[in-house]
Amino acid sequence: MLLAIDIGNTNIVLGLYTGRGADATLLRDWRMRTDARMTADELALTMRGLLGEHADRITGVSALSTVPAVLRELRVMLGRYYSSVPRMLVQPGARTGVPLLVDNPKEVGGDRVVNTLAAHHLYGTACVVVDFGTSTNIDVISEKGEFLGGVFAPGMEISVDALASRAAQLRKVELVRPRAVIGKNTVECLQSGILYGFAAQVDGLVRRIVGELRSGGDTPVTVIATGGLAPLIVGETETIDHHVPDLTLVGLRLFYERNVH
């Protein structure tokens, strides 16, 4: 069984795969909160608790971390607790098969690289990946599977927190769909602004990106949503074609299979 570990700024997502290639199946996935102070031993113990009966059946590990402090502990954990199985870490110099056509390839986070790998594998076209997490990341992929760059914007939860901390009459609210766009109370006004405002932002950016991709012709472009907050907003957008919750886990699996035979 392959254990895929995706450590982001807000959450750690674990995925357990059986089989390889076309026969690969995501057996289970788990999500826990990221704590930048977590030690290698704490990380291993928490993951073992989630894995339960599967903990002793791991035959390979594919991992990434976009949090530098946790990346250091992740390396220690892999060496200490998974030394007997093949383990792959997404980092500069790793063989991902994704050309990074940007000014400084070392700046590109591992999650963006494996999302590129997964998106091109799944759809085989030029792609735009919208990752709804701590920040909203929009990554652009050529029809050849090259990473072309992208866009960063504050995430929905960051925006809610900022409003609550900077405006005396506003507070944190649950991110759910309000009764209508025109809010009748403070909570609905906030929910409408966040939900529909972000949907409009994503649609506007995606349309501009697709326009640039198609500047030389009518190139097919697939728009994919992923990330923990995607379910809140996908239904309100007009440009997203597919919602793939486990896109990063798919990319981690593909990265492992490219390197471990």
UniProtKB/TrEMBL annotation:
Protein keywords: ATP-binding, Coenzyme A biosynthesis, Cytoplasm, Kinase, Metal-binding, Nucleotide-binding, Potassium, Transferase
Binding residues for substrate: 109-112, 186
InterPro entries named in the record: ATPase_NBD, Type_III_PanK
Cofactor note (record): A monovalent cation. Ammonium or potassium.
Membrane-spanning parts: none
Residues binding K(+): 131
Family statement drawn from the similarity comment of this UniProt entry: Belongs to the type III pantothenate kinase family.
Protein name: Type III pantothenate kinase
Species of the source: Actinoalloteichus caeruleus DSM 43889
